[in-house]
Amino acid sequence: MECQGIGLHSGAPVRLRILPAPAGTGIVFRRIDLDGFEVEAIGRNVAKVSYATSLQKKGVLISTTEHLLSAFIGIGLDNAIVELDNLELPILDGSAKPFVDMVLYAGLKQQRKRRSYLKIRQEIEVRDGNKFIAVYPADGFSVAYRIDFASPIGEQSFEIDLSRDLYRQELAAARTFGFLHEEKAMKNMGLIRGASEENVIVVTRDGVKNGPLRYADEFVRHKTLDLIGDLALLGKQIIGRIVADRAGHAMHAALVSRILKDKLLWEETTEIGETRPTMQPVVLSPQPI
Q1: What pLDDT is attached to residue 75?
Q2: I need a labelling partner for 258 at 20 to 30 A (CA). Which of 176, 198, 242, 286 fits?
Q3: Is the pTM of this model over 0.90?
């Protein structure tokens, strides 16, 4: 499975390939332009959380990981090697759908090892002014997100039960977005050099410049997609209810850090209803499923 494109913020061309990995590997990024140096998709490697989530290990950077990791959580992929030949993942159309389609076209293979979950036992809340994110004990995995941006986006709320097979239909295609009046300032910061109307919803003071939207509430759905990708940095799928209010990558990362630091707040388990095996991608049998 292979794709190529440009990075949203760097504008750099990049080729990406997804390979199967043994059970217990998790998600590992491999920089083939740097002698195959590997960076694990885990909270301890989080480096930057400004406008995107980036990982770093021994000075090697992997930028804008959230859409791919969200896709993996959404389709239940646990173990994979992600090869890339530059520092930033391709933005593609600005959503997780191309990654979902790429993996499912090749197929997923069940592995013998049972999936291990991180089950929340006590509530964890993180606040920053009027921003809020929390996780509460629950029987499944659900996410509720609320945003409140300037007009014309305004206030939007969305909730999804990820214990059911809803990700592909309700979240995968939601694209990243940005305000046109912020473009110059962001480029002066070295950001969005690869942004275009092909990969970003462009919002003006009067409305969406490059519509139509894929969902009426696509903005909050994309924020939910981002959160799910950032939660993948726990290294395991979660059992709990996530509630976020005007959060963002920094607060997502703060919640991941809080969870990982206090092992009294959660337990590791393989029990969640029925037994579920771990999954890895198939690359030699390109058949849709």
Answers
A1: 96
A2: 176
A3: yes
